[in-house]
């Protein structure tokens, strides 16, 4: 017998709950299906948000051959066998679940087929494709971001199952409380239906009455303290970052522990620490970025539970480090100026001159090679004429950057006001 979640899998695009921003009328995906012009896509979102369902609906709507692989068990050989079959067809869809688990060579095996249009690729991933899918393949796919289901949407899934499923319709079911069901689902529609089916299977009497206590007891799990996909997810990571920025290692470790106990993705925590190391510490302590990046590599290999030790070490180091956001502010100021002034002309003396024509046009003429000057500094103008003297980087007030300020002042004198 099929599980309830499988029996409730949507058969048309309008049945998919919670992803109306990509499946609703007038959306890019809906229009592509209506016009029969679907291109290769990547579906990125948490578990149970409808990635596989969308792939199935697309195949059924377009009525074309549909191949399915799981990156957990499939290899290059499996991919090549399907591609060989696909070459004999006018069109087909290859759906790869958990495509982020494919290594570079496995992803590269898909690239040529996607480029030629031999297949229309649909990849599903719970991980950020920017990090997990190679850039060549990523650039040939449109990325659709799926959202975790909220309370109202989960309730719609629940109501739909109770009112439409043939087996549930035969039972007398009374749901007095939904909080435990919804909380244990974690925004995952499939998990919600699995929990519902499990609880109902344990009740012999009719009507079958569901309460929070019964659900928690049946699942044998305490109510989740941390919702990886809901508001707390963002609140706690925000508190974690602000605690490190505020140089409080105790608060940082506390919020880190909240995320670990809640089962937060170890890579998500590590990525945020890499960003923090550059944004909030920067050149006040360059070792912070090195440690944060090493932490990401380490926890990616180790995983829980031992990864908690590495995360804690890094969090404590970042929280107790001297802080500076000078580099972060510098790039944002520069980007804002570029948006205002456009592409200003590069000074001729620092332009590249690989051809004789460019040399004849004085490209590179007058450039002073700094290493030939005293102190390896030639004191030449390097900025476009219109913005020369503009300051983007203002060193922070800390030991390392104060030394940087002194060196810049000695080199540039009054030019930048250092």
Structurally, how many domains make up the residues?
4
Number of helices: 21
CATH class wording of the largest domain: Alpha Beta
State Rg.
28 Å
Strand arrangement in the largest pleated sheet: 2-3-4-1-5
Summarize the structure.
The protein is an alpha/beta fold and 418 residues long. Helix content is 51%, strand content 7%. It starts with a helix and ends in a 6-residue tail after the last helix.
Describe this structure in words.
The chain has 4 domains: 19-145, Rossmann fold (3-Layer(aba) Sandwich), CATH 3.40.50; 151-219, Helicase, Ruva Protein, domain 3, CATH 1.10.8; 231-320, Zinc Finger, Delta Prime, domain 3 (Up-down Bundle), CATH 1.20.272; 342-412, post-AAA+ oligomerization domain-like (Orthogonal Bundle), CATH 1.10.3710. The protein has 21 helices and 7 strands. The protein has helices at residues 4-7, 20-23, 28-34, 51-62, 76-86, 104-116, 129-132, 135-138, 151-164, 166-169, 179-185, 189-201, 212-219, 231-245, 249-261, 266-281, 287-302, 307-320, 326-341, 356-360, 399-412; strands at 41-44, 66-70, 93-97, 120-125, 142-145, 173-175, 208-210. Strands 2-3-4-1-5 form a 5-stranded parallel beta sheet, sandwiched between helices. Helix 6 (104-116) links the parallel strand 3 (93-97) and strand 4. It is globular and about 90 Å long.
Set down the secondary structure blueprint:
Layout lengths: L3 H4 L12 H4 L4 H7 L6 E4 L6 H12 L3 E5 L5 H11 L6 E5 L6 H13 L3 E6 L3 H4 L2 H4 L3 E4 L5 H14 L1 H4 L3 E3 L3 H7 L3 H13 L6 E3 L1 H8 L11 H15 L3 H13 L4 H16 L5 H16 L4 H14 L5 H16 L14 H5 L38 H14 L6
Parallel strand pairs: 1-4, 1-5, 2-3, 3-4, 6-7
């Amino acid at each position: 017998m099929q599980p309830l979640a499988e029996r409730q899998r949507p058969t048309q695009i309008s049945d998919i709950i919670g992803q109306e921003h990509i499946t609703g009328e007038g959306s890019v995906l809906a229009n592509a299906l209506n016009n029969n012009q679907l291109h290769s896509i990547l579906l990125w979102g948490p578990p149970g948000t409808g990635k596989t369902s969308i792939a199935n609906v697309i195949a059924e709507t377009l009525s074309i051959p549909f191949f399915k692989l799981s990156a957990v068990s499939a290899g290059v050989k499996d991919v090549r066998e399907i591609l060989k079959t696909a070459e004999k067809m006018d069109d087909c869809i290859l759906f790869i679940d958990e495509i982020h688990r494919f290594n570079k060579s496995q992803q590269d095996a898909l690239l040529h087929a996607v480029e030629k249009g031999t297949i229309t690729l649909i990849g599903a991933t719970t991980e950020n494709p920017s990090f997990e899918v190679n850039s060549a393949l990523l650039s040939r796919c449109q990325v659709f971001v799926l959202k975790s289901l909220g309370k109202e949407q989960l309730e719609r899934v629940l109501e739909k199952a109770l009112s439409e499923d043939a087996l549930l319709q035969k039972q007398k079911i009374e749901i007095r409380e939904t909080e435990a069901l919804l909380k244990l689902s974690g925004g995952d529609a499939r998990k919600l239906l699995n929990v519902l089916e499990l609880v109902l299977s344990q009740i012999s009497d009719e009507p079958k009455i569901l309460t929070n206590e019964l659900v928690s007891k049946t699942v044998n799990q305490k109510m989740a303290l941390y919702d990886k996909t809901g508001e707390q997810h963002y609140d706690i990571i925000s508190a974690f970052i602000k605690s490190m920025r505020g140089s409080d290692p105790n608060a940082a470790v506390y919020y880190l522990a909240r995320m670990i106990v809640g089962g937060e993705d170890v890579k998500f925590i590590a990525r945020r620490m890499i960003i923090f190391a550059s944004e909030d510490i920067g050149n006040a302590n360059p070792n912070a970025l090195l440690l944060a990046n090493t932490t990401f590599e380490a926890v990616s290999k180790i995983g829980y539970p031992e990864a908690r030790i590495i995360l804690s070490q890094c969090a404590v180091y970042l929280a107790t480090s001297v802080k500076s956001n000078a580099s972060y502010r510098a790039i944002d100021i520069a980007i804002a100026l570029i948006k205002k002034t456009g592409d200003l002309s590069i000074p001729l003396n620092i332009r590249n001159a690989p051809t004789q024509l460019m040399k004849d046009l004085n490209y590179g003429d007058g450039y002073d090679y700094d290493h030939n000057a005293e102190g390896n500094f030639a004191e030449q103008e390097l900025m476009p004429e219109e913005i020369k003297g503009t300051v983007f980087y203002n060193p922070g007030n800390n030991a390392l950057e104060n030394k940087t300020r002194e060196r810049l002042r000695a080199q540039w004198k009054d030019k930048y006001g250092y």
